[in-house]
Amino acid sequence: MSDKPRVLSLAQPTADSLHIGNYLGALRQWPPLQDQYEAFYGVADLHALTVDVEPAVLRKRCLASAAQLIAAGVDPTRSAVFLQSHVPEHTQLMWVLSCLTGFGQASRMTQFKDKSARHGSDAANVGLFNYPILMAADILLYNADRVPVGEDQRQHLELTRDLAQRFNARYSPTFTVPEPHIVRSVGKIMDLQDPTAKMSKTSSSPNGVVDLLDEPKLNAKKFRSAVTDSGRDIVFDEQNKPGVANLLIILAAFTGRSVEDLVEGFAGKGYGDLKVAAADAAGAEVTPFRERTLELLGEKTELEQILADGAEKARAVASRTIAKVYRKVGLLRRG
Predict the structure, then answer these.
(1) Is the pTM of this model over 0.85?
(2) What are phi and psi of 40, to 5 degrees?
């Protein structure tokens, strides 16, 4: 077992491909953490069941998600890369934590509350209601010290911390109370066709979303047809020139240059120059990522072995945690 502190993060397999917003805002920032932490990176396939999905599609997306983690730089020899469903201790711990969670507290969780408000309580299944508790189990099972989170996950991490403290107070110290690892902000990546909306799979136009596994020529075309703004000057003004600002943010994220430096460099140039530069910078990083992902998906047996090995690593930790939890809550050890 490593003496390093632990970090954990899971990616939901909700689409055939991640897009550059997912990549820049989260995934690209996971591999460097392997230097400082004992890392557990997985695919949250159980969480994906909270929405209707065809079984064959889910299986395909799980493999694609795992391949994209590795293509981004997650090293299976240094990190546990696994499917959530391959580690049954996740759901075992979720049940124990569910029995410590008040109904009122669970019903205040944003995802369930928002969906219930929009579509009625019958549209929100019990899995969605329990989603934050399963997420808490995901984290506490490995006694993760740090969890990479964005603003939309802060409430769930607070629930996790609360449940850890509640269990520790009732049964004696057991769980590490995790701290958020705030991912470095690259700025919000917005839709190329509607730069006032965040880039998302639910976008009204597929041309506004740059998928990592799409053909490079298609993504370059999406950049060329990106909505900009009136005028010609390239300035960073998110309110009055959201399209230009979005392209500058994307270009800055892929090149490592500051937005201010980019604006200075584009003095006297037009929107077309900015679009080409953004497309080229994205393509230079995304194209080899895509090729590596497709290579892994073409070696399905090897990828499945990586996931099996990762689950074994994860279970080595998870089984010890659940044994301790079961003993503390009074469940008899199996003979």
Answers:
(1) yes
(2) -125, 110
